[in-house]
Amino acid sequence: MGAFELMGGNFDEALAHSRRAMELNPTDAYIKARCAAIFTFVGEAERSLRLLDDAEMLDPFLPVYCVEERGVALHSLGRYAEAIESLGRLTFQTTRSPGGCTRRTQPSRRSQSAR
Q1: Is residue 109 scored above 60 in pLDDT?
Q2: What average pLDDT does the chain have?
Q3: Which sign does the torsion angle of CA 108, 95, 42, 56 carry?
């Protein structure tokens, strides 16, 4: 629910749902990692990093779309070298990671040649 509220611009509700999910299931690494994305988005990247530390301690095999949030949080804090290092360890980039966003928004060769 937190992610849906976030997409709708309801930041307070997104945070409330995220906190509640973690209260209901405090040892769920996936929930912590996904909630970290919401905290980064609303400007609480330090909190996001702490959640990711907890999540990775609980489950070192989280999916890439959870683990990438560390790089996104570091990037949002202006810790670019650490962000690059963190994102460089991913098995692949997604549209959420800064590198994935850059690649996705650049025109493809095919669309350039069509002009």
Answers
A1: no
A2: 82
A3: negative
Q: How far does Cα 52 stand from its chain's mean position?
A: 10
Q: Is the dihedral of CA 95, 82, 32, 43 positive or negative?
A: negative
**Alpha carbon separation from 7 to 35, 37, 62, 102, 111 (Å, rounded):** 13, 12, 23, 21, 29
| Rounded Cα gap, residues 107 and 36, in angstroms | 30
Return the beta strands (E) in 15-97 as ranges: none
Using one digit for the tens of pLDDT, what is the confidence trace for 14-51? 889 889 999 999 999 999 999 999 999 889 999 999 99
**Structure-token pair, residue 49:** 């990093």
